[in-house]
Structures are given as structure tokens and as C-alpha cells.
Specification:
Strand 5, helix 3 and strand 6 form a beta-alpha-beta unit. The protein is about 25% helix and about 30% strand. The protein binds inosinic acid (IMP) and magnesium ion.
């Protein structure tokens, strides 16, 4: 078997840096949503690690749901074509919704999902993304909470994948460009 570690470049964010930020975000969200019984909507699969850590830093009454979008289909470039492949279990009508995402890149997925969820008449709607590649944005999306601004590199770890690999890395690193160039 290949040593897949050879595909991983420099570490951008250590587990410790991420944990500190997640604690700050949890504190801010708890204070903003106290008494509002928000529903945290995790976007599968990338947000799962972030959401599970974030939830444990949130000390208010809340619930959790999940939604899955069609993705890059394993590649590193967005197709711009997005659709819901697994919908929420519960209604969000009159609920305070906080969408939890791993990374906002072009913003196309998030803009699509925002427009879709807003038609369901939530009481309020906001977005919390661990990472934001603001320089890569093609459509505007309003991020109420952002963990880190990151450069336009392809990142893996802490839920982020390259062809379904590396989600389990406990830190965030750049994938070496030679791994995906030519795609
Ligand atoms: P967008 O529609 O271009 O904003 O893409 C958002 C989705 O693409 C994210 O939810 C990720 O699943 C994926 N994505 C974007 N950039 C990266 C990256 O650097 N590493 C891994 N996945 C990424
Ligand atoms: Mg994703």
C-alpha cells in the first residue's frame, strides 16, 4: 500500500489551534442563542467532526439535524451543480437555524442551501463555517461565525476530504498540489 502521508503538505492548523477556536465559537453561539432553542444543521459529511466538537462547547438547549448535498464528486474543483441528496429529518419552520459547515469556498453550495432553507420559513437563519476561502468566493454568503480565513489551497483533515480520504486527520493540512494537478 502507498504511504498516503506523502500526499500531505504543510500543516495549516494544529488540533490545538482548532480546539481553541471551537471553544470561542461555542461560547459566542451559546451567548447569542440562549433561550432560543436553536437547531444546528450539519452539512454532511465534511462538518461532522467540527459539529461534534462544537456541540460540546455549547451549553444551551438546542437540537441537531443533518442535510447532505451532492458534492465535488471526489474532485477538487466545484462543478457548480448542487442538490440536496439527503434532507432534514425535522421541520425548521419557526426555528432558529444555524447551519454548520466545514469550509466555504466558492460559496455556491452554501448560497444554494441558504436559498433552499429560507423557503421553509425559519424564525432566523445564520451560518457558522470553520474555514473560509474568501478569495475564492463567486457568490456572496453572509457568515455570522467564521473560524479561520484560509488560502486557496486544497485542504484536508478534521472532516475535510480528498476523494473521501483524510477526514480523520486531527489537524488541517494542505494536500500537495502534485496530488490533484491535472484533474
Ligand atoms: P463551495 O460550493 O465551492 O463553497 O464548496 C463547498 C464545499 O466544497 C465544502 O463543503 C467542501 O466539502 C468542499 N471543499 C471546498 N474546498 C475544500 C478543500 O480545500 N478541501 C476539502 N473540501 C473542500
Ligand atoms: Mg462539504
Amino acid at each position: 500500500m502507498n504511504d498516503r502521508k506523502n500526499e500531505i503538505g504543510k500543516t495549516l492548523l494544529t488540533g490545538r489551534q482548532i480546539a481553541k477556536k471551537v471553544k470561542e465559537l461555542g461560547r459566542a453561539i451559546s451567548s447569542d442563542y440562549r433561550g432560543l432553542d436553536p437547531v444546528f444543521v450539519g452539512i454532511l459529511k465534511g462538518s461532522v467532526i467540527f459539529l461534534s466538537d462544537l456541540l460540546r462547547e455549547i451549553d444551551i438547549e438546542c437540537s441537531v439535524d443533518f442535510i447532505a448535498l451532492s458534492s465535488y464528486m471526489g474532485e477538487t474543483e466545484t462543478s457548480g451543480v448542487v442538490k440536496v441528496v439527503m434532507d432534514l429529518r425535522e421541520s425548521i419552520r419557526e426555528r432558529h437555524v444555524v447551519l454548520i459547515e466545514d469550509i466555504v469556498d466558492t460559496g455556491l453550495s452554501m448560497a444554494y442551501l441558504r436559498d433552499n432553507l429560507l423557503t421553509r420559513q425559519p424564525a432566523s437563519f445564520s451560518i457558522c463555517s470553520l474555514l473560509s476561502k474568501t478569495a475564492a468566493r463567486r457568490v456572496h454568503v453572509d457568515l455570522k461565525y467564521t473560524g479561520f480565513e484560509v488560502p486557496e489551497e486544497f485542504l484536508v483533515g478534521y472532516g475535510l476530504d480528498y476523494r473521501e480520504r483524510y477526514r480523520n486527520l486531527p489537524y488541517i493540512a494542505a494536500l500537495k498540489p502534485e496530488v490533484y494537478k491535472g484533474e
